[in-house]
Amino acid sequence: MSTSEYFDKICGIVILIALIITVLFMNGEMLGLKVLVDEDSETHESNQYFTQNDRNGNWDTKGAAEIFLQGSSASIKGNGAYMKDGDLVIASTGRYIIEGVLEGGSVIVNAELNSKVWILFSGTDIYCPDNACLRVEQADKVFLTLKEGTENRLESGSVYSEKAVKGGTDGVIFARDDLTVNGSGSLEISGGNRHGIAANDDLVIAGGVIRIDAPDDALHANDRINIADSDLTLHAGDKGIVADKQDGSIYFESGALKISSCDDGLHAGGSILISGGSLMIDSEDDAVHSDTEFRLTDGILQITRAQEGIEAPRITVEGGELSISCRDDGLNAYGKSDTLGAYLGNLGIDIRKPPSEPDPELPTVNISGGKITIINGLGANADGIDSNGNILISGGEILISLIGNGINSAMDYGKENGGILKIDGGTVIAAASAASVEEISSFSGQATLLYLQENPELSNSVITLFDPDGRIILAHAVPLSYTALLLSCPELKTGTTYTLDVNGRREEITVTGSSGIYGPLSGSSKQP
């Protein structure tokens, strides 16, 4: 047989094999074949927040290397790790149990590019004066597990070495790749330089009782920060939690989080989503800041102190409980303004025809559920809810209290930009200043009662709204003094006369429309 005939046969076989592989690839599931997917791989693009490995804080330690730290040395039983110049180096994929005390050195992970490394802290105490205590130089992903019942501690000095700084090390724990912290033990991190935990890629906290004190950010990642099933207490000289990139995101699912920060509490270049758990934030600047969107679907978010409570172009509250104590705006949906429209609007010149539907391109606060409480007793030019575009309320319970002097507004929307303030459902009790009142859009689906008065009402005044049969449909003690009171609830109907009681003073008011204005400053209602 000639060489060309052999060549033709070989080409035919190769083509046939290629066709078979293609058919199997395209129809593998129909034929019962399963494609193995590494959910923890950096190349995996799933939208899920946690993998099975992330949540597994009780992995099998059989066959793991056992390492006992002894000051500047270590006893190592097993393969994949060695001591070098006072540092413990993990050089291979695998599982490692670490306990004991390391003084003046680091645990360094420098494994294969696609490797997974599991590290179990089992009573580990590390002090490194001039570098990270745990440094991930290379791996696909590292899982740091805190063993149940153990206490672990990491502390770094205030001045990092020139080599560490040139290498970009900026945390007590520093990872160039994805990092997960899980388990049920405790971890205390004390940083003298930069961040507590810093990750160049994704950072997942899926367990453990963790306390961090850091001069800059407590948790800092470039990409995503996902948190569940953990108890976190963070003290930060700058921001509490930061996802730095333009699309960097923060997701909180369950557990407890307490933040005390000298700047923002939560800060993301992308979105922030809270779907459960309990969060408490005390911040010098914004408690929560997102460059794209903030969403609360469930859980408890308590902001005890902040300049502004939540700031993002889009703010969505679908459920949960949100309480805000702030010095400026409670909720602020910011974005570019129509400069000419805003300027003319400030002069009392309206060049826009009021829209009947919200412009989806405008900054928007959208509330469809949950309970929101906003209290600001310090601001003189602040808003409970402020939007450069729309405020849309279709459900939930909203309680707002700002002092009645100055030009504090309970709800301020971007009318000059074509925005609307629309109430189609929910319960709203909002008290602030009559000097800065925004009217509700007339096409709102739910009636409102806006009562304006000249003299400030006393703090902790009790308001009660009765229907024609004498039944209470709204009752609330307003914490701060006010001169403007906005009430709205599903029971409030146009054309019906209600009795408004404020600290025993009663007045009958007939609601004439979805955006009625009443009281001494309006001339629309009979006075007591």
Please work out how many helical segments DSSP would assign: 4
**Strand-pairing-aware structural class:** mainly beta
Which residues form runs of ≥5 with pLDDT under 50? 524-528
Largest sheet: 25 strands, mixed
Multimer state: single chain
Number of strands: 43
User: In whole angstroms, how far apart are the ends?
Assistant: 115 Å
Rg, nearest Å? 30 Å
Beta fraction of the residues? over 45%
User: What best-fitting shape do the alpha-carbon axes yield?
Assistant: elongated
Helix content: under 10%
Averaged pLDDT, please?
90
Précis, in short:
This protein has about 525 residues and is mainly beta.
Q: What do these coordinates show?
A:
The strands form three sheets. The chain has a 25-stranded mixed sheet that branches. Strands 3-4-6-8-11-14-17-20-23-25-27-30-33-35 form a 14-stranded mixed sheet, with no helix packed on it. It has a four-stranded antiparallel sheet with strand order 39-38-41-42, with no helix packed on it. It is built from four helices and 43 strands. The termini are far apart. The longest helix has 25 residues, at 3-27. It is mostly beta strands and 528 residues long. Among the domains are: 1-31; 351-528, no CATH class.
